[in-house]
Automatic annotation (TrEMBL):
<dbReference type="Pfam" id="PF00219">
    <property type="entry name" value="IGFBP"/>
</dbReference>
<dbReference type="InterPro" id="IPR036383">
    <property type="entry name" value="TSP1_rpt_sf"/>
</dbReference>
<dbReference type="GO" id="GO:0005178">
    <property type="term" value="F:integrin binding"/>
</dbReference>
<feature type="domain" description="IGFBP N-terminal">
    <location>
        <begin position="1"/>
        <end position="72"/>
    </location>
</feature>
<dbReference type="GO" id="GO:0008201">
    <property type="term" value="F:heparin binding"/>
</dbReference>
<feature type="domain" description="VWFC">
    <location>
        <begin position="79"/>
        <end position="145"/>
    </location>
</feature>
<protein>
    <submittedName>
        <fullName>WISP2 protein</fullName>
    </submittedName>
</protein>
<keyword id="KW-1015">Disulfide bond</keyword>
<dbReference type="GO" id="GO:0031012">
    <property type="term" value="C:extracellular matrix"/>
</dbReference>
<dbReference type="InterPro" id="IPR009030">
    <property type="entry name" value="Growth_fac_rcpt_cys_sf"/>
</dbReference>
<dbReference type="InterPro" id="IPR000867">
    <property type="entry name" value="IGFBP-like"/>
</dbReference>
<keyword id="KW-0732">Signal</keyword>
<dbReference type="InterPro" id="IPR001007">
    <property type="entry name" value="VWF_dom"/>
</dbReference>
<dbReference type="InterPro" id="IPR000884">
    <property type="entry name" value="TSP1_rpt"/>
</dbReference>
<dbReference type="GO" id="GO:0007165">
    <property type="term" value="P:signal transduction"/>
</dbReference>
<dbReference type="GO" id="GO:0005615">
    <property type="term" value="C:extracellular space"/>
</dbReference>
<dbReference type="GO" id="GO:0045597">
    <property type="term" value="P:positive regulation of cell differentiation"/>
</dbReference>
């Protein structure tokens, strides 16, 4: 009876389907009649306005008695995170851009940069360093700007020997990024071949992660 009240036959749909926000696909409504934008994680839903099942979302009516209404949530209480309109499952590794790699964890996400974060200081062979975006490449690159303002690519600078003494400098290694298991720590240092400030990373393990508890046998 409820379906008969909400669903009209024959159904009439707009001539032009709606334009959905990024990460919300076009799906059929609850009556199987018109195309609508699927509701995303945390958005309100009902019988007609369905959730995005491709992301494992269902309409959660558990909060209806409290007066807040039904919302889209993961089935069976599974946690995830939403980034740029797309939902990722817990533990899933993804790249929101070519410069970042992220991991969904406990409803949030952590990211590490994929591009080097080195800092280049002026040197005799490159008095005016400048970092620019290069067409066709994701990460910016350093170029040497000459005094006459002509831009010269930093191709031969790496092969030149260091013509002045290098005073070594560096920060302490940071704390491990993970409280248990494999993580990484960072520092800024110029202890390299060209005496150039750069962000260095190394793997670290603060402590082993506790083993998951074994499932208890069913009680007859």
């Amino acid at each position: 009876q409820v379906c008969a009240q909400l669903c009209r036959r024959p159904c009439y749909c707009p001539w032009v389907p709606p334009r959905c926000p990024r990460g919300s696909p076009l799906v059929l409504d609850g009556c199987g009649c018109c195309k609508i934008c699927a509701r995303r994680l945390g958005e309100p839903c009902d019988f007609l306005h369905v959730c995005d099942q491709s992301q494992g979302l269902v309409c959660d009516y558990s909060a209806v008695p409290t007066g807040t209404g039904a919302t889209c949530n993961f089935e069976d209480g599974e946690e995830g995170c939403e980034v740029n309109g797309r939902v990722y499952r817990d533990g899933e590794v993804f790249q929101p851009s070519c410069k970042l790699q992220c991991r969904c964890l406990d409803g949030g996400f952590t990211c590490i940069p994929l591009c080097q974060e080195d800092v280049r200081l002026p040197t005799p062979d490159c008095p005016y360093p400048r970092r620019v975006e290069v067409p066709g490449k994701c990460c910016p690159e350093w170029i040497c700007e000459a005094r006459d303002q002509h831009l010269l690519r930093d191709t031969g600078a790496a092969s030149l020997p260091l013509l002045y003494p290098c005073q070594e400098w560096g920060t302490e290694w940071s704390a491990c990024s993970a409280t248990c298991g494999m993580g990484f720590s960072t520092r800024v240092s110029n202890q390299n071949r060209y005496c150039r400030l750069e962000t260095q990373r190394r793997l670290c393990v603060a402590r082993p992660c506790p083993a998951l508890p074994a499932a208890s046998p069913p009680v007859s």
